[in-house]
Design a protein that fits this description.
alpha/beta, seven-stranded mixed beta sheet, 12 helices, 15% strand, globular
Length: 476
């Protein structure tokens, strides 16, 4: 039986041709734990909140001098690259000496990046017939629990893939643009335009003006009548959560509109952009991704990154999806980071530092920028309450790269950080030093089991990574 104030978890606000998801509210939880059926939704905490998983990919490796923390177990100090995460140190697991054994055969980046979430040996090709020869951990999870949410998974990126051939190593560059694979031969498309991603998540199908009435008002304005009716049914705490959620959605809308307008003005002198703007006409919130990815121009990518991170947080908060990936850039990315003090030129070029101290300093500065964006996401998720925990507590977020060092192209001792507690299944606040050559896929097997996926092996792993929920475990 249910009470009058109980509302379904899949409640949506509707109005004028749009549909808007809601955050998880107390009124959506089971009437009592005794009546709840955990077996019906094994990817939730004991008190009914879903467990989420995200993988955030940093291309081109890290400065090997500045990644590893000092000390181990709970007695560790963050390295220069990880220092932006200091506020969240109690929420972190820094994992050392993990690697992918099956990617050691190929030169360059592509063998490693395409298999970052699969742990497989990809097929060498210079054409479009790409094959990872495995399903990525995020997509395997989506196949098992994606039916519980409106979107099985969400894939985002700050940079488009390219299809040209890298003649230095004899691989198509397509491999550098994808980390998610739904089948061994199907990379999952990623969205690089925050406006389109927002539309997909929070507006009606098609994403632009309503096909019924041509209305381009805020999605909040369009559903306000329905929202007022729902608000009257909720308790004070749920009303507060709803107000905070609306403020967050409104903030993302305003930032997208402001950023699109600013960028259109900034690049009005570019003939190609001017032609594109003229062709798009009234598309107010257009995101000019082509200009951003021109490697010869310096552009501050921070707002683009934060928009995507905010969208991921909102998607998790509303239970629109429980699985997400973000590529801060494609591997072998030429993205220009000259907007950072002391940095000159593109990311990939800088990663080939040849042990030049000055160039390694620039490389480290780019790494730190990526860590700062991850810290921004953790700030957002830690501030969102779900019962006695936070959204961050009910999630597992993996941040890292498929290379240890972009100069050496090494897949050994990969830079990997976990944040969150997976609803109590992780015990963070530690630096764990595993034996050399420990399989990263052991971590993925553990992640899948934390999400409720009934699986006993993944890629080359048939045992979970030890110590993840043992507060006293420090490794070797």
């Amino acid at each position: 039986m249910s009470k009058k104030w109980h509302i379904p978890r899949r409640t949506f606000l509707r109005g004028a041709g749009v549909t808007m998801a809601l955050p998880m509210l107390n009124a959506m939880l089971p009437v009592s734990r005794a009546l709840a059926n955990p077996a019906a939704d094994s990817a939730t905490t004991a008190d009914g909140y879903p467990i989420r998983y995200a993988a955030l990919f940093m291309p081109n490796g890290v400065d090997p001098r500045s990644w590893a923390p000092t000390g181990k177990g709970a007695n560790f100090e963050l390295s220069p690259i990880l220092l932006p995460l200091s506020v969240h140190k109690p929420n972190l697991l820094v994992l050392s000496h993990l690697e992918h054994d099956r990617v050691k055969w190929g030169d360059g980046h592509y063998v490693k990046s395409a298999a970052w979430l699969t742990g497989t040996a990809i097929t060498k090709t210079t054409g479009a017939d790409v094959r990872s020869n495995g399903i990525s951990v995020d997509q395997l999870a989506a196949q098992h629990i994606g039916n519980l949410t409106r979107l099985p998974s969400l894939e985002l990126s700050l940079e488009s893939p390219v299809s040209s051939v890298d003649t230095n190593v004899g691989f198509t560059q397509l491999y550098g643009g994808f980390i998610s694979w739904s089948t061994p031969s199907t990379p999952v498309a990623r969205e690089i335009n925050p406006k389109l991603a927002f539309d997909r998540l929070f507006r009606s199908a098609g994403g632009q003006k309503s096909a019924l009435n041509g209305d381009d008002r805020s999605v909040l304005d369009l559903v306000m009548d329905d929202a007022k009716g729902l608000r009257q049914q909720l308790g004070a705490e749920d009303q507060r959560k709803l107000d905070e959620y609306f403020d967050s959605v409104r903030s993302v809308e305003h930032r997208i509109e402001f950023e699109a307008d600013r960028r259109s003005k900034e690049h009005a002198d570019d003939a190609a952009v001017r032609d594109a703007i003229a062709a798009l006409g009234k598309r107010v919130d257009a995101w000019d991704s082509d200009v951003e990815h021109k490697s010869e121009r310096s552009f501050d990518h921070t707002e683009h990154a934060k928009l995507m991170l905010d969208l991921m947080v909102l998607a998790f908060w509303t239970d629109s999806t429980r699985i997400a990936t973000l590529m801060f850039g494609r591997d072998v990315s030429p993205k220009n980071f000259s907007f950072l003090p002391g940095v000159e030129g593109g990311h990939h070029q800088t990663s080939h530092h040849e042990n030049n101290p000055g160039k390694m300093d620039q490389y480290r500065a780019i790494n730190i920028w990526h860590t700062q964006q991850f810290a921004y996401m953790l700030d957002k998720m830690a501030a969102i309450r779900e019962g006695d925990r936070s959204l961050l507590d009910n999630s597992t977020l993996m941040f890292g790269s498929s290379l240890r060092d972009g100069n050496a192209h090494s897949p050994v001792d990969l830079p990997i950080v976990l944040a969150g507690r997976a609803g109590g299944q992780l015990s963070p606040g530690r630096h764990i030093v595993y034996p050399d050559s420990t399989a990263l896929t052991d971590l993925y097997l553990a992640n899948l089991q934390h999400l409720g996926v009934p699986i006993k092996s993944f890629s080359d792993s048939d045992e979970v990574l030890p110590g993840l929920n043992d507060a006293n475990y420090a490794g070797v």
